[in-house]
Design goal:
This protein is of the alpha/beta class and 274 residues long. It has one domain: 3-Layer(aba) Sandwich (Rossmann fold). It is 43% helix and 14% strand. A seven-stranded parallel beta sheet has the order 3-2-1-4-5-6-7, with helices on both faces. Helix 1 packs across helix 7, helix 3 packs parallel to helix 4 and helix 4 runs parallel beside helix 5. The longest helix is centred in the middle third of the chain and has 29 residues. The protein is globular, with a radius of gyration of 19 Å. The two termini are 33 Å apart.
C-alpha cells in the first residue's frame, strides 16, 4: 500500500519541519521530487537524505508568498521532473512580525495582505497551475497544509486563522470543480507540532508538559504525524477521498474547554483501566 513508484512530487517549505518529513516519507515510498523553500542549504541537506533512499531530488529556491515565484516553481518542477503527480502546499504561517498573530485591533492592511499572499493567494494559484498539468496527464493529487486555527477561531490569531479557513474553503471548491478530471484535493489541519517555528514556545520541560496536557493523547504532535497523513491522502489508496479537511490534532476537536478543565481538576490516574 501507499506506493509512490513513478510519482513526481512537489513539496513547498521542504527544508525542515512538516515539509521535510513529508518529502522523506513520500520518497521512502518511491517518489522523486522537487523540494522548494527559501533556504538552499536546508533543501540540499534534505535532497541528500532523499538521494540516500535511492530517489531523485531537485532543489528549487522560491518564496511562495510571491506569485511569480510560486507559479514559476510549478512550471519549472514540471519541466525538470517530466511530470507532476502530487503537490503538497506546506509553506505558510503567520507571526507577530508578519501580522498574522496579534490582536485584531493592531492588524494592518500590509500585514493582512502578506499573510493572505502566503497562506491563500499564491497556494490557490499554485493549485490551479498544478491541476492543469495533472488534468492533462489524467489525474493527480494536491494536499494543502492548513491549521486547526482555520477550523476553530482562536484569539490573537484572527488574520492567520481566517487565511487558513479561506484555503480550507477553496480546497473544497477545487475538489468539486476538478473531480471530473481525476484531480483530488484535500487539506490537513494540524494543531501544535514540534517544529523549529514553535520551539521557543515549548523550550522547557514544564512548558512542553503543559502544552501536551491540552491533548487527550497527551503529547505534542510530530512532523511525521502530518507527513503520514499526507502520504495517505495523496496516494492511490485515497482515490475516493477529495475535498476533505483532516484534523491531525491529538484529539483536540474532541477535547472541549470543559473537558480540558475537568482533566486539570480531576486528572485521570495513570493506573486507570477501561
Amino acid at each position: 500500500m501507499f506506493s509512490y513508484e513513478g510519482k513526481k512530487v512537489v513539496v513547498t517549505g521542504a527544508g525542515r519541519g512538516i515539509g521535510r518529513a513529508t518529502a522523506l516519507a513520500m520518497a521512502g515510498q518511491g517518489a522523486d521530487m522537487t523540494l522548494a523553500s527559501r533556504s538552499e542549504s536546508e533543501l540540499k541537506a534534505v535532497a541528500g537524505e532523499i538521494e540516500a533512499l535511492g530517489r531523485q531530488a531537485w532543489v528549487m529556491t522560491a518564496d511562495v508568498s510571491d506569485m511569480d515565484q510560486g507559479l514559476g516553481l510549478v512550471a519549472d518542477a514540471h519541466a525538470a521532473m517530466g511530470g507532476l503527480d502530487v503537490l503538497v502546499n506546506n509553506a505558510g504561517g503567520g507571526s507577530s512580525v508578519s501580522g498574522g498573530i496579534g490582536p485584531l485591533e493592531d492588524a494592518t492592511p500590509e500585514g493582512f495582505d502578506a499573510v493572505y499572499a502566503l497562506n491563500v493567494r499564491v497556494p490557490f494559484f499554485m493549485c490551479q497551475a498544478a491541476a492543469r498539468h495533472m488534468a492533462a496527464a489524467g489525474g493527480g493529487a494536491i494536499c494543502n497544509i492548513v491549521s486547526i486555527d482555520g477550523v476553530f477561531p482562536a484569539p490573537l490569531e484572527g488574520v492567520y486563522g481566517s487565511a487558513k479557513a479561506a484555503l480550507i474553503s477553496l480546497t473544497g471548491t477545487l475538489a468539486v470543480e476538478l473531480g471530473r478530471h481525476n484531480v483530488r484535493i484535500n487539506a490537513i489541519a494540524p494543531s501544535l507540532i514540534d517544529t523549529p517555528l514553535v520551539a521557543r514556545h515549548i523550550a522547557s520541560d514544564d512548558a512542553r508538559a503543559d502544552r501536551a496536557s491540552f491533548f487527550p493523547i497527551n503529547r505534542i504532535g510530530k512532523p511525521e504525524d502530518i507527513a503520514n497523513a499526507a502520504v495517505y491522502l495523496c496516494s492511490d489508496e485515497a482515490g475516493w477521498t477529495s475535498g476533505e479537511t483532516l484534523l491531525v490534532a491529538g484529539g483536540q476537536k474532541a477535547a472541549s474547554d470543559t473537558i480540558r478543565w475537568l482533566r486539570r481538576v480531576n486528572p485521570v490516574p495513570d493506573t486507570a483501566k477501561f
